[in-house]
Every structure is written in structure tokens, then in C-alpha cells.
Write a structure and sequence with these properties.
Largest sheet: 7 strands, mixed
CATH architecture of the largest domain: Up-down Bundle
Strand order of the largest sheet: 1-4-5-6-7-2-3
CATH superfamily of the largest domain: PhyR, sigma-like (SL) domain
GO molecular function: DNA binding; sigma factor activity
Subunit structure: Interacts transiently with the RNA polymerase catalytic core formed by RpoA, RpoB, RpoC and RpoZ (2 alpha, 1 beta, 1 beta' and 1 omega subunit) to form the RNA polymerase holoenzyme that can initiate transcription.
Helix content: 40-55%
Number of domains: 2
Low-confidence stretches: none
Number of helices: 10
CATH class of the largest domain: Mainly Alpha
Shape: globular
InterPro entries: ECF_Sigma-70_Domain, NTF2-like_dom_sf, RNA_pol_sigma-70_dom, RNA_pol_sigma70_r2, RNA_pol_sigma70_r4_t2, RNA_pol_sigma_r2, RNA_pol_sigma_r3/r4-like, WH-like_DNA-bd_sf
Protein name: RNA polymerase sigma-70, ECF type
Mean pLDDT: 93
Order of helices and strands: HHHEHHHHHHEEHEEEE
Length: about 290
């Protein structure tokens, strides 16, 4: 391995984490990092004063372009589009190259979809990688003052999205347990009491499996649909089981149907400790094999 290759490989985990945060997709992140490698391979290394900054700048620009293309595809996605989870459990191990990426909560990834690609890049570089505004300006082609405004605006828009992104894991785990207990018992009232008044639930099936084709809004809507799904699952003769796990480092439920993962469920609480955001991933293309 040459010194230049070794340098790139040392940066690969951070570049993967950056691109995953930008795109919310594993394959998209890997493609962006591979494109970064191809440009690095062709670059005049002697003329690059700071290789780490050069690689981060290149990867971010590639990810911004990729996100713009992805947004166009997501507009025609069948039902709600949700970011791809990075899942761990006793039986599932996360790939080493995504270990840094899993630090980004799914609720935050989802909320960042409301940011423009440039806002998203500025926010991620500043908050996740502690980049200076001079570096963000060089990457985005905007002034440092404009970049400060980008980051500030991103913060405001994310705060308006509803769920907390800094909830203690034990709070999330407790809410998940209480929700699963109510759902398993088909206790409609208990489930209803767990949701914030403006709660929203999303199910991503990718038109590969049955899933709600619209967001479920409010406790009544969410509870009615989820109880119907739970009742049907309990009547189904197929063998299914649930186990605790982690999705992007946060507590989650992993459900298996006849041994194969068919659902990842997690949530984010509201300021008053109820469920503000419920995430249900069923798209087999986004689930662990």
C-alpha cells in the first residue's frame, strides 16, 4: 500500500460518516466516498497542502451533488422516504466503515431532509466535524458570514421539526418498552396516552412490502393503524420474534419474520417525554440481510 493510499484509508471512516449524514443511505455514502477516492487518485498530491481538508471538501461537494439527484428521486418514492438505519443487535454487527456514521440519530437524519443540500452540508460540517467557517466557506463557495447564517437557519428549522435529538437513551428505551407492551396487549388507551398531540409516524416499505403510504398524524390516527397491524400480525401463522437492538446508536426494536429481519422500530420523544416521532423501516432494501 502506498503512502497516499494509506492516507486515504485512514480518512475513509470519517468521509463515510460525512457522506452518510449527507445522504442517509449506505450505498450512496459508499459511492460518494469511492468517487472521492477516484479524484484523490488523479490529484497532484504534491500540490495539496492539507490532504484531510482536501478530501473532506471533495467528499462534501460530491455528496451535495448526489443529494440533489436523490431529492428528485425521493419526490416519486412510493410512500414516505426514511433514512436507512445502521442496525446492531446481538446477532447483527455493523460494518467497521460505518461505525462513525452510526452516531447520527435517525430522527436528526430525517429532520435534515427539510434543509437544502448546502444548509445540510454547512450544519453537518460545523456540528459533527467542528469545521471552521473558513473551511465551510471554501466548500460551499459562500462567504463566512453567509455560512454562519446557513448554520443558524439549519438549527432553527431542525428545532421546529418536533422530536428531540438529544434524548437520553434510557428515555427512548423506556418509551419503546411501554409502547411495545401496549401494542402487544392491544391496549388502545395505553398506546394512545404515549403519544404527543402532534406526534407523527412513518413507515417506509419502498413498495416492496405493505406499509402506510402516508405519514400517520396524531395519536388517534397512529394508534388506530398500528393496533390493526398488530392484531393482524398476532393472527398470522408465520413465526415472528422481537429483540432489542440499536439503530444509529439509539435503542430500537428488531423484528424478525421467520428468522429474517422485517422491521426496525425506533422513536424520538417530545419535550414532555411522550412519543413525538415513530420510525418503522420495512423496506427490505434498507434492512440488514
Amino acid at each position: 500500500m502506498t503512502a497516499d493510499t494509506a492516507l486515504f484509508e485512514a480518512e475513509r471512516p470519517a468521509l463515510t460518516a460525512l457522506c452518510y449524514r449527507m445522504l442517509g443511505e449506505r450505498a450512496g455514502a459508499e459511492d460518494a466516498v469511492q468517487d472521492t477516492w477516484l479524484r484523490w487518485e488523479r490529484a497532484d498530491h504534491a500540490a495539496i497542502e492539507n490532504p484531510s481538508a482536501w478530501l473532506r471538501r471533495t467528499a462534501t461537494r460530491i455528496a451535495i451533488d448526489a443529494l440533489r439527484s436523490a431529492r428528485a428521486r425521493r419526490e416519486t418514492y412510493p410512500g414516505p422516504w426514511l433514512p436507512e438505519p445502521l442496525v446492531e443487535s446481538e446477532s447483527l454487527g455493523i460494518e467497521a466503515r460505518f461505525e462513525l456514521a452510526q452516531e447520527c440519530e435517525l430522527a436528526l437524519l430525517w429532520a435534515m431532509e427539510r434543509l437544502s443540500p448546502t444548509e445540510r452540508a454547512a450544519f453537518i460540517l460545523r456540528e459533527a466535524f467542528d469545521a471552521g467557517y473558513d473551511e465551510i466557506a471554501a466548500i460551499t463557495g459562500k462567504s463566512e458570514a453567509a455560512c454562519r447564517q446557513l448554520v443558524s437557519r439549519a438549527h432553527r428549522r431542525l428545532q421546529e421539526s418536533g422530536p428531540r435529538f438529544d434524548a437520553p437513551p434510557e428515555d427512548v428505551a423506556d418509551l419503546l418498552q411501554r409502547f411495545m407492551a401496549a401494542a402487544s396487549a392491544l391496549d388502545h388507551d395505553a398506546a394512545l396516552s404515549l403519544f404527543a398531540p402532534d406526534a407523527v409516524a412513518f413507515t417506509d416499505g419502498g413498495k416492496k412490502v405493505r406499509a402506510a403510504l402516508r405519514p400517520l398524524i396524531g395519536p388517534q390516527d397512529i394508534t388506530h393503524v398500528l393496533m390493526a397491524v398488530m392484531a393482524k400480525a398476532m393472527q398470522d401463522k408465520a413465526q415472528w420474534s422481537v429483540e432489542p437492538g440499536l439503530a444509529n446508536g439509539g435503542p430500537a426494536i428488531v423484528r424478525r419474520l421467520e428468522g429474517k429481519v422485517d422491521l426496525i422500530l425506533t422513536l424520538a420523544p417530545s419535550a414532555d417525554g411522550r412519543i413525538a416521532w415513530l420510525y418503522a423501516m420495512r423496506n427490505p432494501d434498507k434492512l440488514p440481510a
